[in-house]
Amino acid sequence: MLDPQALFVVAILLAALSAILAHFGYRSPSYVVGIDLGTSFSVAAIKPAEAEKSVSPAVVKHYLTDSPLVPSVVSYFPNGTTAVGDAAVARQDLFPEDTIYHAKRFIGKGIEEVSFDSEAHPFTVVPSPNSTDEVRFSVLDHSLSVSPVDVGVQVVSELLKSVEAVVGSSGASKKVVICVPVEFNQPQRDATRRVYEELGLTVTRLIEEPVAAAVAYNLHQRSGGASSRVVVVFDLGGGTLDVSVLQVATFSGSINVLSTSGDQQLGGQDFDRVLAKLINEKCRRQNPNHPEHYSSVMAERVKRELTVHENTTVCGGQLITRDEFAEAASDLLDRIYDTMHRSMRLVMLDPEYVSDVVFAGGASRMPIVQDTVYAAFEDADTRFHTELDPDLLVALGAANIVD
Prior knowledge:
Blueprint: H1 4-23, E1 31-37, E2 41-48, E3 58-59, E4 70-71, E5 73-76, E6 82-84, H2 86-89, E7 99-101, H3 115-119, E8 124-126, E9 136-139, E10 144-146, H4 148-171, E11 175-180, H5 186-197, E12 202-208, H6 209-216, E13 228-236, E14 241-249, E15 255-263, H7 268-286, H8 292-308, E16 311-314, E17 318-321, H9 322-328, H10 330-345, E18 354-360, H11 367-376, E19 383-385, H12 393-399
Parallel strand pairs: 1-11, 11-12, 13-18, 18-19
Antiparallel strand pairs: 1-2, 2-3, 2-4, 5-6, 5-7, 8-9, 9-10, 13-14, 14-15, 16-17
Helix pairs in contact: 4-5, 6-12, 7-8, 10-11
């Protein structure tokens, strides 16, 4: 082992080498890092800072799971350590009171603002000692109190490990572009920014999620005859629906949010429940004692199969068709249709003036959902964008914004 004096000499030599390389113009490549800190999942994307506009960002896959989606879940151990992402999800059933998820629903909010969400989760939500601050989560038999910002720090830190695994610690920029929902107020935006600041990162841009989704498709770079175009971003996630109307300036590329309308109690999980009920009815035709919870487990698989195929089978040949699914979910689809029109009515917009519709959020993959959106623009000459993975759009758009 080198003695302290030798280590000091090595450090001086390395510093001198770095200075010489810098003098001759050598720089480690740096990247724009775009991060989507989501309610259910979080994603990071990167793009070389000096890349041409035509170069597309790349989504970063987790260094262990090889999935780009990291569950926004943190589980706390008595010894002070944490499990994050899939490792935390694995502990969720056994340690529900010590495993925090959906922290984004609580960030920047006081206790009086989260009564509904508090009751809907198994962990304990408590007011901050300072009544003006956001709520906290009490875990480990109330021996530890953590904030939604603390949870966000753990999730973003996990994302950054994957970024460094791809580009190296020298290429991993300390500057990030981050996203927030349109409806976030200033305390929520400030709290989200603190997540990154506590990790020593510099937030170069904070943009709204539907804007990032439009940028992912480069809609801000396209020119045309008109001075502006109108874009609708349809974002159906696991638990919420948001429909935003954007105005894109054709020549400058600037994007403004004209309106946002949503349904905060409508998401993919509601379609899962409808499908589980339909599966249960089918399976009990064959086996009257079919356990109901089996149907809930099967719902995700059946939903994926009905996204690709017109029909599938359950319980030894019981047929379920996409049309049956649509009929069972008709109330949910009606709410989607109404939300689409409400978002446009807010700015007195006729559907025929919408040039592009962007699908975001994993639940927007379902054909029965897409057909409902298409129906809202039945007579319009509108382009529908489904080419990119809707789960990754926001992070890709954030990384595509270069100052």
